[in-house]
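Our collaborator T.R. sent over the components below with a one-line note: 'Predict the complex.' Nothing else. No constraints on interfaces, no templates requested, no preferences about which chain binds where. So this is a plain run: every listed entity goes in together, and whatever single assembly comes back becomes the starting point for the next discussion.
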Amino acid sequence: MSLNAFITKEAVESDEDGPLSGKTVAVKDNISTKGVRTTCGSAMLEEYVPPYDATVVELLKDAGATIVGKANMDEFGMGTTTETSAFGPTKNPVDESRVPGGSSGGSAAAVAAGEADLALGSDTGGSIRCPAAFCGVVGIKPTYGLVSRYGLVAYANSLEQIGPIAPTVEEAAGLLDVIAGPDERDGTTHDEGADSDYAAAATGDVEGLTIGVPTELVEGADEGVEEAFWAALDELEAQGAEYKEVSMPSVEKAVAAYYVIAMSEASSNLARFDGVRYGKSGGYEGNWNDAFARAREDGFGPEVKRRILLGTYALSAGYHDKYYAKAQDARAWVKQDFDAAFEDVDVLASPTMPVPPFKLGESLDDPLQMYLADANTVPVNLANLPAISVPAGETEGLPVGLQLIGKKFDEETIIRAASAVEN
Amino acid sequence: MSDTPVDADEVRHVAELARVDLDEDEVEEFTTQFADILEYFDALDEVPEVDREDELVNVMRPDEVRDGLTQEEALSNAEETEDGYFKGPRVS
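Returned assembly:
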């Protein structure tokens, strides 16, 4: 019966009176909670109990929220299905034979099933928007630097942001209001968002809004997904928005660039897990390099090993220029394409995921196929932009998400546009 | 075909650099998968040279002492400690 949405179910009550009083929030298990174990979905950290709270968790408590548990996730955020979790997959509450998406699958499933009112996820290449789309709820990936990453266990620092998942656009925006703003403990945060009122932007008014549709992000999508996507755009047009097609050739290289950068950063970030200061050591004897290598063999699952090794390879002598440097070029190219597109339009729209939710077990054997499913979400992380996924109909009974991408720190406009999709 | 063929020895070498032991089944599986994935990454060869306009500035703060974790808190997740220190495996 259980969806396995939570790795740890433990209530953390707040005595504060604030905008989230009476609300229950699921927190993704890579966000540090003082005194409550934080596993990142990994056997390596099965018994890790953080001695401090992430900034976003402090903000939740200050806002009066009750944390109901730590949500299941792909191991260290590495996956698109929540199946790489060492604690077993989460099921999609809409259809329990299917995945909830990932990597924040537990967060989205908990909200969709009513096991939490709201949730926090993290999004490195689509990990909030994908599960939001697959579970039929709303997810926001904020502009890079809007939300503090202090206390988020790092996977790929230059790409990831913490963000909200909720049943409605207004509630997601309200949770973003709570967590957004500068933090002296995260030097990449900005002053934007300090006194935000994103919830007030959910007016449902799109009169005069110009929407661009990058053709590269629609072509090749599943037929049912594409139909739902165009129906949603027609609906927005009927409400007074206009849309036009735009071309962004760089996004064809975004998946390759994203994975090279994310894996490279992962190979460096995950070097810290040697079982000495935290994590499983396995108690191996002998040369310390051998002991660490055996601890890491035991503690990491296959997808994490794959990414650490490929990242190590991409950064190694002789390959750095071919992979990592070219990926950085591609990242700059993607940013330029977005800048050019936003000269003519207010927001960009695409299907969040090109496919409906996978069957459980369907995609585990072919990692490259799984990476390709991220084609529409990763360009946003490469360009540091904000994006929202909002439910936009169904295909064969399965949810379809519409992704709306905004200019840097222009969360208001994507929230406004997404709220019109709910009309 | 990729112009950067990966063989089992190369997978073992990278695993050693990354300090991750692999069993033989994993080596075999990764060798096949890495060939596919790296071939896909070859698409980056077609990326044009781009002027990277990074608008990065250093974010500095005064180097002042502030509260951090206590020694006890810092050691609380270590499997082995001795006299208030982390205890790791032998160096050699």
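Summary for T.R.: Chain A has twelve helices and eleven strands.
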